[in-house]
From TrEMBL:
Pfam families: Ribonuc_L-PSP. InterPro entries: RutC-like_sf, YjgF/YER057c/UK114. This is RidA family protein. Transmembrane segments: none annotated. It comes from the Bacteria.
Amino acid sequence: MQNNNPFVQRSNPNTIAPPVGQYSHVTKISRNAEWYVFSGQIGTDVSGNIPPDLSQQAAYTLDNIGKVLASQQLTPDHVVKVNIWAVEPIDWDHFYGVWGATFGATPPSMTIAYVQALGLPELKIELDVWAAG
């Protein structure tokens, strides 16, 4: 797999099963890269409203990730790892639609965990993003 960021290389070793979702098993960072750590992003619209639906929150969250990356002159190709925290089952067909629109054919490494609660009671999903560039 390749992306357009020379500091980030992604791959899936053929010695283990392929990923069960849209992510890369391995993400390698060049020693010349700068690291960016972003606070967990949530699914608010531009006015700060949080929709009640997890799928809409996921779409807003990925849009917000694109915006916070752009604020640092980064693109989704710079994303190294995404941790996903959700309080209810994710509609993976919908999620992978917006995920794929964001990350394309070379998605970053990913971890998903279902948790009892997030920082606000109305939050259903939060994504923690690390990037390099």
